[in-house]
Amino acid sequence: MKLSDDDKAMLDGAEGPAVAAAMDLLVRYGQALDAEQLCDVRNVAGTMTQPSPVKARLVREGGWHKAFAVINLDCDDEIEIPDMRVPTCQLQQSFGPDSAGVVPYPAEMIKLQSEAEAFYGRKGVNILATCTPYQVGNLPVRGEHCAWMESSAVIYANSVLGARTNCEGTASTGAASLTGRIPCWGNHLAENRHGTHLIEASVAIDDPMEWGMLGYFAGDVVQEARPVVVGELAIPDLLELKHFGAAAASSGGVELYHLPGITPEAPTVEAAFGTHPIPEVVPYGARERQAMYETLNGQGTSTDVDFVLLGCPHASLDQVRMTAKLLDGSRLRAQLWMMVPRSLKTAADRSGYTEIIEAAGGRVLADSCPAMSRAAPEGTRVFATDSAKQAHYLPAILGIEAWFGSLEDCIDAAITGRWRGELK
After folding, report:
1. pLDDT tens per residue, range 350-392
2. CB–CB of 257/224 below 8 Å?
3. pTM above 0.90, yes or no
4. Is 159 in contact with 258 (CB distance < 8 Å)?
């Protein structure tokens, strides 16, 4: 792999042992990927503060410097971690202080996370604590090379924003944050960003639930490839694009899709496929739509709902507003958690939305999600969600049943304690 003079200097220790360890990791990583070189990145989104028993042990043994070295740099040496070289943000993590007494999550983990935030904040990490950094200030531009984790964030950055990132890991993002470099392969290369499959929807795709089911279908069809989607598509908003991308990254490993005339790298179908021939159409019609709904609801048998989860990926302020409107004046029989970025929770508080949701018995919680922290209300056997991603993951993670439907279906389940959703 070809290294620049700056790369070689970092690798040789010119900027200290932590940077040298980071560059050593990136060189090994790049060689394993058969990357020809590294590319500059000025935008890193990773995880440094998420607590765990292993991290707690490392902190007891050698402090936060050791925890970062071992977990984020794959390095067992005693080294001091310098400030981040490039803008770096923390993605979603464990539940924060606002969950105490609400979420069955260990208090010592919340304390550990708060200590981590203080340490890494001083090192230049922006504690956004969300899986949707693009909602709260980290908004890369078209063509910008990034090093991001989190599948639903990566697919949004690549597809909706036209930025360039692969789905990175804890170690590669840690190394990138100290070097401003990442292996130049995969989605960083223009030739790897063209479509591979053409999916045509013959049913109306015009609300978040429909976009979520279409995304789940697309991911299942293409797996790790790049779908180009056309047909009866209403112009999607941020919420619908979040649901589509998160679903496609869950049923498959999609990191990039194109919606001709909507997403920036695909003004036309022809442009989406570049020099490649346009493939045969994969249809998405009434039969496929019904199959997706049945698949997402194939993990529920009891209609008694204990728990409703909203905000996966983290909810936008408009989602919080819509939830408050649907709950206004009601009283919940099932527990309801709505996951949001902390900065948007502040906006929801100021706008009066949180007060309405909490008056009904629900909670607006920041920082993380039940799948990330493996925590749901005690005694939960059945949950309902408007997120195809959570319907896909949470039953396996927590051993509970799932129902998937619209926001209205979920609010009805929270109020009545029963699942009455159906495909319209």
Report:
1. 999 999 999 999 999 999 889 989 999 999 999 999 999 999 9
2. no
3. yes
4. yes
